[in-house]
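User: Fold this; tokens only.

Assistant: Input:
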Amino acid sequence: MATNPADTPNPPSTPSTPLYRRLARRLQERIDAGAYPAGARLPSEPELSAEFGVNRLTVRQAVAELERAAVVEIRRGVGTFVRPPAVRVSIAVDPRSQRFDLGSVHAALPEAGREDGTADGEFVVAAPPVTGTAEDAEAARQLGRTPQELSRVDSVIRLGGRARAASSYWVPFGPLPAELVRPGRPGNLVLDLARTAGVELEYDWRAFGAVGADLADAELLGVPPGTALLVREGVSCTPDGTPALYVRRRIDGSSARFVLHFRER
């Protein structure tokens, strides 16, 4: 017998909640309960339409809602399949003892990447010129320099076979060695830049926020434009307090989280 989502109790819904969204929540509940496990194919539009007593347009809108939430994957001409749970890495931040800046690769991806980019790790993407964009101007302000005094290098951090974070680093020295900024080169940019400058880096400050993925980051991370990205930015300095590196890292929020530890572990 068909069951209309509008007649079924659903605590998060209200009478003003669109019918397609209530249906999406019912399907989400089934996925969460394991009725449709990871990799399973959802029933077809006609089957869901008949079961829930709604038209096919409502079903299509509900499935599209789940796709936007990265719950399902629509394979044109094949069907709709439940995505596996997102792989997430926890990056531990100890505000009492994590003084030295060893880079996120040290904290999250300890194994170095390979040249073919198939392994986990950090890989150079490009070394764009510092031209005075809003990001360049912010880096200059944070480092107490002019944009003309800065060098920049961009990288991507891969985990589980896909890009998870895009990073941009600005340093008040240069030009940077060609080998260091060669596209595809694996490494740990924080440590590599510190060695190039002959300095030891310490954390000055870090801040966290969120932005929607622009076209460049969306392409680099393989996510739709507008996808919510975590932003971790901050300055690292030399032991005497001189600002020596500004970093702005954009992270696929489904792939990583930051954990603060306030007790010795």
